[in-house]
User: Which sequence fits this backbone?
């Protein structure tokens, strides 16, 4: 069943991710849940004294990624404004439930989309917190030109069909998701979108594991001060290194192979991320990301995503199980070529 709003065919299973379990055990024993160690909100600790970030964290939210323009530089909702915003969004979802899927027969309707129960606990009006207008900076000249060239090269082509002339380097707007290489919300950096919006964190003294439910992507991040990989060694999810700054885990990621699924693939291999994880209370983890990419934007920008503690386990994301998408996509493209379309 094709995804909406993403571009991958997938069935989410009902079994806890065996990948996640294996990685957790590979890292070693983790501490007990924070609730068993300290009262809510007092900064619970692991057995070795580090802030305890262990657990499954849910990053669904109704808070828009970018602030609605009419709000200007209003950074926070009042309680009344938050309630009105939530009511308007839920009313919109009810209308969508009564409509056919927008992207064609067989696509997901609103039932399958995880929107969250409300705006962020912080009442922020957008996830983007810098620039002050809560908007992602405009693309620079080079990135805008690349984006326009891509749009023109794909004019009249189905969303997942390969761009004429090849399919290795490009396979439609959602090539990473449809190939099960990168999830559209799992990052790095993580951002709310669609469904399976959960990350499991497990800690030892020397490593932190970030295991995302979507595409079961994982990062095992060393905390021992080792340098990043040499410049010639690049990876799909980059090369992450972590450190503690007070009670905040800071993860710096460089050495990306190429663009990722973040912001619809506009980033470049020069993307540089600084992610910050701060346990604000027993049930709240603040995730803040500063994005720097001179190949896309002329200035860094930052967003903050509050994550809620979840008592649910991660579920298996069987991305390639029974996936005939790639075969059918390529077969359809070859047929269209033969017909001169």
Assistant:
């Amino acid at each position: 069943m094709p995804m909406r709003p993403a571009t991958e065919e997938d069935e989410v299973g009902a079994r806890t991710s065996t990948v996640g379990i294996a990685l957790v055990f590979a890292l070693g024993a983790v501490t007990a849940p924070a609730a068993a160690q300290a009262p809510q909100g007092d900064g619970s600790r692991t057995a070795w004294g580090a802030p305890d970030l262990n657990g499954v964290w849910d990053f669904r939210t109704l808070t828009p990624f970018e602030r609605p323009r009419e709000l200007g530089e209003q950074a926070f909702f009042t309680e009344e404004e938050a309630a009105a915003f939530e009511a308007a969004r839920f009313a919109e979802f009810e209308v969508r439930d009564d409509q056919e899927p927008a992207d064609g027969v067989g696509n997901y309707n609103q039932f399958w989309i995880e929107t969250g129960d409300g705006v962020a606990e912080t009442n922020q009006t957008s996830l983007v917190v810098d620039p002050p207008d809560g908007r992602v900076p405009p693309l620079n000249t080079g990135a805008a030109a690349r984006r326009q060239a891509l749009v023109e090269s794909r004019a009249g082509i189905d969303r997942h069909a390969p761009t004429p002339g090849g399919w290795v380097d490009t396979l439609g707007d959602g090539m990473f998701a449809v190939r099960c290489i990168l999830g559209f919300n799992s990052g790095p950096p993580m951002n709310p979108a669609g469904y399976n919006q959960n990350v499991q964190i497990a800690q030892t003294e020397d490593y932190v594991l970030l295991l995302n439910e979507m595409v079961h992507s994982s990062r095992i991040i060393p905390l021992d001060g080792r340098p990043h990989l040499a410049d010639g060694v690049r990876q799909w999810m980059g090369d992450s290194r972590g450190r503690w700054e007070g009670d905040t885990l800071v993860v710096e990621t460089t050495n990306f192979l190429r663009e990722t699924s973040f912001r619809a693939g506009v980033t470049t291999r020069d993307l540089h991320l600084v992610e910050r994880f701060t346990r604000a209370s027993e049930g709240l983890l603040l995730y803040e990301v500063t994005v720097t990419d001179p190949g896309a934007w002329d200035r860094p920008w930052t967003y903050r995503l509050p994550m809620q503690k979840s008592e649910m386990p991660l579920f298996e994301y069987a991305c390639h199980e029974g996936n005939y998408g790639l075969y059918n996509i390529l077969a359809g493209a070859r047929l269209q070529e033969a017909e001169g379309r």
